[in-house]
Amino acid sequence: MFDDLKGRNAVITGSTSGIGLHYAQGLAALGVNVMLNGFGDEAKIEETRKDIADTYGVTSLYNGADMTKPKEIAGLIAEAKDAFGRIDILINNAGVQKVSPIEDFPDEKWDQIIAINLSSAFHTIKHTVPIMKAQNFGRIVNTASAHALVASPFKAAYVAAKHGIMGLTKTVALEVAENGITCNAICPGYVKTPLVEDQIADTAKARGMTEEEVKKKVMLEAQPTKEFVTYEQLNGLLAYLCSDVGGGCTGTAYQIDGGWTAK
């Protein structure tokens, strides 16, 4: 079903760990060349980049653009275009989180979360759409969240940014609908990523609960399946949206949240 992905080229922000890294590995396994991006230990990132290239026989590159800096984001897209010749897939996945009552929410954390979780997607899309229009083909996938559709307390910046991502997704989809380009959002529930692991401790502090109580009564309580969403499940949906068979899907939020938003 996904043979058409072989030889495609993808840029994936926030792909040195968590969901983004698994997206990169999943696409590489289908023959997609990948441009990684994100922060972390330089030696470990290089090891990851090389491992993807060696394991899957694809071109695997890395650019450390800071997602709060528009000029560096423009440089990331330009480097990918120069290296690959074209950009077929753009995945906006970079994200950070802060859990705090709104009256105590640090101003600088609000600004950082909006910049990384929302504004960076605007900048990557702005610079990638002309490339995709020239090709008459493109797949843009934004990692949103169940929090793009519903809210939770103590996550003002994250929920605002993810709701914004849905508005951006719909707007871009309409603008490029006649250019062979789709733009969709994947809305995961809780996936046991490093970001979620950090949230567990922060949420426990904000709510006066133990970490085990947070897992059971806050996170998995929201998901009727009572199970974390897996990386494999996310990769299956991503492959569909990036492939030719997913070409009729655009401007849509794809919930993969264990039933959370069905309530």
UniProtKB/TrEMBL annotation:
Transmembrane segments: none annotated. It holds the Pfam family adh_short_C2. GO terms for biological process: monocarboxylic acid metabolic process. This is D-beta-hydroxybutyrate dehydrogenase. Gene3D superfamilies: NAD(P)-binding Rossmann-like Domain. Belongs to the short-chain dehydrogenases/reductases (SDR) family. NCBIfam families: PHB_DH, PRK12429.1. It comes from Parvularcula bermudensis (strain ATCC BAA-594 / HTCC2503 / KCTC 12087). PANTHER family: 3-OXOACYL-(ACYL-CARRIER-PROTEIN) REDUCTASE, 3-OXOACYL-[ACYL-CARRIER-PROTEIN] REDUCTASE FABG. SUPFAM superfamilies: NAD(P)-binding Rossmann-fold domains. One of its GO terms (molecular function) is 3-hydroxybutyrate dehydrogenase activity. InterPro entries: 3-OHbutyrate_DH, NAD(P)-bd_dom_sf, Sc_DH/Rdtase_CS, SDR, SDR_fam. It comes from the Bacteria.
